[in-house]
Structures are given as structure tokens and as C-alpha cells.
Specification:
The protein is α/β, with parallel strands linked by helices and 251 residues long. It has helices spanning 40-47, 80-87, 105-116, 121-134, 150-162, 180-192, 207-213, 231-236, 241-250, and strands at residues 2-11, 14-24, 29-33, 55-60, 63-64, 67-69, 75-77, 90-93, 168-172, 199-203, 216-221, 224-229. The chain is built from nine helices and twelve strands.
């Protein structure tokens, strides 16, 4: 389980996260929806500690992440080697694919396990091949990013995150940079992962996809979780007035 309590994050004088409270259970798929700039991406980046946050606590399986409280009550960032070890429990996939252009698909997926996991080279290659096959790229393993479509590159990025065998998969608008005809192939990969029971937190503007894939939907507004519940509750019978207006505008 991920437990988030009182999470706050500001950029200068602008407070982006205002005391976020959120739990995500093992095997659960939680989608985050809301207007651009409401704090969804910042929340993901704080969970993975790509952004340091100003206050609050994030726990994974009852273990506090990223900071420790001293006997004097002061909060101290854990050392960088500990950050790197904690981060291995989380995979993250962005809007942009961020693949290394000079590496093949197989090399891109193998890179993380090579540096972070105590595995033989043969085992790492086997693992990378298995995940590329899992996302439907068994015939593209020796291709370089420039030889792949946007959807194929995004599937390589998903395989790269999964090759680290994370407890949590964070997905940030992973289809928003794709041409419409390529969106379905990436969404199909995420659908196929439901059988793996990987905890996923997915930021999306695709309301239909959120309804289909999520166990719960959380609406983020003004840096807080304004409403959360089953897809049918949040999307069909919203209680928050700003959520009602948001859904009206995008439908």
C-alpha cells in the first residue's frame, strides 16, 4: 500500500499540492483526473521523489520514504544511495518516451536491471526480452528508437519500467503525445497488465479509459483530492461542483 498524508509542495509562492491525503492498495489501479495544472503530475513526481516536497509523508508498505524525522522533530532527506534503492520499487513512464537514441529497444530495457539488480547478463537479457514480448515488441528488439513509431517507443518505455520489477507503476499521460491511431495499442498494454496485479497510479484525460481500467478514480482540484470513489460514482454521479463542470466540458 501507498499512504500519503498531508503532502504539500510549492514552486516559489505557488502552492501546487495543498495537503494531499491518499491511499492506494496493493494491486489497485487508481486514475487521477483533473484540469491541467491542478497538481496531478507533481503528485506523481513527489511519489517517485523526482520532486522534493515541503511537508507531509509518503509510505510504501508501512515504510516511510524519502525523509526521516529526527528526535528533535526535524525532517531530513535520506542519503542519495538510499533514495536510489527506494526508487527501484517504483517505475515511472512519462508523456515523452525518454529512450536512449543510441541504444536498441533491448538495450534500453536492459539498462536499469544491469545497474540496479544483482543478476547475470544472461538473466538480464532474458528479463528484457520477456517484457518486450509482453508488450508486443518481440520483433523490434534490435530496433533503435528512430525506427519505432511513437506507440512502439512508449511500449518500450513501459517495458523498461516493468523490467525493474517495481511494486508501483506510475503513468503520466502516457498517450497524450501519440497520434490518435497509436493510442489504442498503448492502452491495450495497460489493460493486459491488470492480470499482473501491479499497483498503478495513472494520470489521464481519457475519461473512457479511466472508467474502463480503474478500480477507483480520484479528481484532483486546486492541489487536493476533491473527490474519490468508484468510476461509476465519480464519473456518473459526481458530487463536487467543479468536477461536474470539468466533466461537462470534456464530454
Amino acid at each position: 500500500m501507498i499512504e500519503i498524508r498531508g503532502l504539500r509542495k510549492s514552486f516559489g509562492h505557488h502552492e501546487v499540492l495543498r495537503g494531499v491525503e491518499l491511499d492506494v492498495a496493493d494491486g489497485e489501479v487508481l486514475t487521477l483526473i483533473g484540469r491541467s495544472g491542478c497538481g496531478k503530475t507533481t503528485l506523481l513526481r513527489c511519489i517517485n521523489f523526482l520532486e522534493e516536497y515541503d511537508a507531509g509523508e509518503i509510505r510504501l508498505d508501512e515504510t516511510a520514504l524519502w525523509y526521516r524525522l529526527g528526535s528533535d522533530g526535524r525532517r531530513t532527506r535520506v542519503p542519495e544511495p538510499v533514495v536510489r534503492k527506494m526508487r527501484q520499487q517504483m517505475g515511472i513512464v512519462f508523456q515523452q518516451y525518454n529512450l536512449f537514441p543510441h541504444m536498441t529497444a533491448l538495450e534500453n530495457v536492459s539498462l536499469g536491471p544491469r545497474f540496479a539488480q544483482n543478476l547475470a547478463a544472461r538473466e538480464i537479457e532474458k528479463l528484457a526480452r520477456a517484457w518486450l514480448t509482453r508488450v508486443g515488441l518481440e520483433r523490434k528488439m534490435t530496433s533503435y528508437p528512430y525506427q519505432l513509431s511513437g506507440g512502439e517507443q512508449q511500449r518500450v518505455a513501459i517495458a523498461r519500467a516493468l523490467a525493474m520489477r517495481p511494486k508501483v507503476l506510475l503513468l503520466d499521460e502516457i498517450t497524450s503525445a501519440l497520434d490518435p491511431e497509436l493510442v489504442g495499442e498503448v492502452e491495450d498494454v495497460i489493460r493486459s497488465l491488470l492480470s499482473e496485479r501491479i499497483m498503478m497510479v495513472l494520470v489521464t484525460h481519457a475519461i473512457g479509459f479511466a472508467r474502463e481500467i480503474a478500480h477507483r478514480v480520484a479528481y484532483v482540484n486546486d492541489g487536493r483530492i476533491a473527490e474519490i470513489g468508484l468510476p461509476a460514482e465519480v464519473l456518473d454521479a459526481p458530487q463536487d461542483p467543479t468536477l461536474k463542470e470539468f466533466l461537462r466540458r470534456i464530454r
